[in-house]
Write a structure and sequence with these properties.
By secondary structure, the protein is an alpha/beta fold. The model has no long low-confidence stretch (mean pLDDT 96). It binds 5'-deoxyadenosine and iron/sulfur cluster. The site of iron/sulfur cluster has 10 residues, from helix 5.
C-alpha cells in the first residue's frame, strides 16, 4: 500500500512539473513515506531526518507522509528535526500544495485532512514500480481492529472504490501494456462498494467475488489480489478462480496464530477450526492454489503450548510462503495495554523455529515444482548476465535464461533447479 501511495505522489509531482531526483543528495525536496505496523517506526524516521539534516549543501525541504505522519501529526515538529511538512494518509493528494507552501517559507505545515472526492488513484506509467505489473487499490482502511494492530488508527475505516472506477483503471493499465494487476487493500475480500455499478452482470455471493469476475472479464492477462481476511473468505472466491484462468492461483490468508486462545485475544474473528475449513476448501481447488500467510509470535500471554499449536497449524496448512513477525506493542492499540510478557529471547526462538518449518515446507513445495512448466511473466533482468526474473501465477520467483525481447511477455519455463527462495529454469 505504501509503495502504491508513493507511486501516486510521484505521479502527482511529475504532473505538477517536478522531476524525481536520482538520489537524496541531489534532491531539493525529500519525502519520507513511513510505516508504523511494527517496531520503533518513529525512531527510524527521526534517524533518517537527522541524516538528511547533516547532508552537505543547501538545506532540503523535508516532508513526512504515511502512517507515522498520520499518527504523530504535530509531534513530528517538536524539537528541531528539520521536518517542514507532515501529510496524513488521506491527504497525499495535496503533497504538491505542501511543497509549494514550504517553498514560500511556511513552517510546520500539517495536513491530516480527508481525501478529495476526485482523488486520482491511477499512477502514471513513468512512476509505476514496473511497466508490466501494477497495483490497483480497491479498498482502503480497516474496520477489524485486531488488538495488536495500528492500521485501523492510521488508515481509518474501510472504504471501497466503485467497481466501475476499478474496471476503468484496469482497462487503462492493459492499454498501457500492463500484464498483471494486483488488487490491493488491507482486506480485499471485505470489499463493499456503495453501488453495484459495474458488477451487475457478474455472479457470486460477495461483492468481492463479483469484482474478481468483472476484472477477469477485462481480458487483462493476470489478476492477483492481496490481502484476504479469513473470516470474510468465502467459497465464491475460489469458485471465481476456478472459472477464470486469468485469476491467479494464489491466496494470501494471514492466520496470525494457531492457538484459539491467542486468536481470541487478538480478536481475529476466526478459530483454528474455521480457518482449517477454509484452507481445506482452497486446497481442494483443481487450480492447485498456492497459499501464503502472516504469523505473529510472542503475542502477550502466548504460552509454549500455544506456540506448539501454531507450529502444528503451520504444518497442516503446508504454506507456500509465510511472513513471520515478532510481536511488537503498538501504542494506542488494546494489546499494548497487556503485559508484553514473552521475552525477547523466547520471541526470537519461536521465530527461528517457525522459520525452520517454513524452509522445510518451501523445499517440499519447490521439489513438487521441479520438472514442471510454469507460466512466468518476464519482469526484469535478474542481475545475472543473460538472466531474467519474474513471477509465476502462484507468486513464486523464477529466474531463467532470456533476452530483453522476452521482457513483458509470459513465457513457459521448465523448472530445473531450486535455491533458497528462487526457482531456476529454462524457457521451453
Ligand atoms: N506486531 C507484530 N506484527 C504485526 N503485524 C501487524 N501488527 C503487528 C504487531 N503489532 C503483522 C501482522 C499483519 C502484518 C502486515 O504485520 O502479521 O498481518
Ligand atoms: Fe490490522 Fe487486523 Fe485490519 Fe489486518 S485485519 S489491517 S491485522 S486490524
Amino acid at each position: 500500500m505504501n509503495v502504491s501511495d508513493s507511486e501516486r505522489v510521484a505521479s502527482q509531482l511529475e504532473r505538477l512539473g517536478y522531476s524525481i531526483a536520482d538520489s537524496e543528495e541531489t534532491a531539493d525536496v525529500v519525502l519520507l513515506n513511513t510505516c508504523s505496523v511494527r517496531e520503533k517506526a518513529e525512531q527510524k524516521l527521526y534517524t533518517r531526518a537527522g541524516q538528511l539534516k547533516r547532508v552537505e549543501g543547501p538545506r532540503k525541504i523535508v516532508g513526512v507522509m504515511g502512517c507515522v505522519a498520520q499518527l504523530e501529526g504535530n509531534n513530528l515538529f517538536k524539537q528541531d528535526r528539520g521536518i517542514d511538512f507532515v501529510i496524513g494518509t488521506k491527504a497525499v493528494g495535496r503533497v504538491g500544495d505542501a511543497i509549494a507552501a514550504a517553498v514560500e517559507g511556511e513552517k510546520r505545515i500539517l495536513d491530516l485532512g480527508e481525501r478529495e472526492e476526485d482523488y486520482d488513484w491511477l499512477p502514471i506509467k513513468s512512476q509505476r514500480h514496473s511497466p508490466y505489473v501494477a497495483f490497483v487499490p480497491i479498498i482502503e482502511g480497516c474496520n477489524k481492529f485486531c488488538t495488536y494492530c495500528i492500521v485501523p488508527f492510521s488508515r481509518g475505516r474501510e472504504k471501497s472504490l466503485e467497481a466501475s472506477e476499478i474496471i476503468r483503471h484496469v482497462l487503462e493499465l492493459r492499454r498501457e501494456g500492463v500484464k498483471e494487476v494486483h488488487l490491493i487493500g488491507q482486506n480485499v475480500n471485505s470489499y463493499r462498494p456503495k453501488s453495484e455499478s459495474g458488477l451487475e452482470a457478474f455472479k457470486g455471493t460477495t461483492p468481492f467475488s463479483r469484482l474478481l469476475r468483472a476484472v477477469a472479464a477485462t481480458g487483462i492477462e493476470r489478476v492477483k489480489f492481496t490481502t484476504s481476511f479469513p473470516r470474510d473468505y468465502h467459497a465464491d472466491i475460489t469458485d471465481a478462480i476456478n472459472e477464470h484462468e486469468n485469476l491467479c492461483n494464489w491466496v494470501h490468508l494471514p492466520v496470525q496464530s494457531g492457538s484459539d486462545s491467542v486468536l481470541r485475544a487478538m480478536k481475529r474473528g476466526h478459530t483454528v477450526e474455521s480457518y482449517k475449513k477454509k484452507v481445506d476448501s482452497i486446497r481442494s481447488s483443481p487450480r492447485n492454489i498456492s497459499l501464503s500467510t502472516d504469523i505473529i509470535v510472542g503475542f502477550p500471554g502466548e504460552t509454549e503450548k500455544d506456540f506448539m499449536e501454531t507450529c502444528d497449524l503451520f504444518e497442516y496448512c503446508e504454506y507456500d510462503s509465510a511472513y513471520i513477525f515478532k510481536y511488537s506493542p503498538r501504542p494506542g492499540t488494546p494489546a499494548a495495554e497487556l503485559e508484553d510478557d514473552v521475552s525477547t529471547d523466547q520471541k526470537k526462538h519461536r521465530f527461528l523455529e517457525l522459520e525452520k518449518i517454513q524452509r522445510k515446507m518451501l523445499q517440499r513445495s519447490f521439489e513438487r515444482k521441479k520438472g514442471s512448466v510454469l507460466r512466468v511473466l518476464a519482469e526484469k533482468p535478474s542481475g545475472r548476465e543473460g538472466q531474467l526474473s519474474g513471477h509465476s501465477p502462484c507468486q513464486t520467483v523464477v529466474n531463467f535464461e532470456g533476452d530483453e525481447e522476452h521482457l513483458g511477455t509470459i513465457v513457459d519455463v521448465v523448472v530445473t533447479e531450486a535455491k533458497r527462495n528462487t526457482l531456476f529454469g529454462e524457457i521451453r
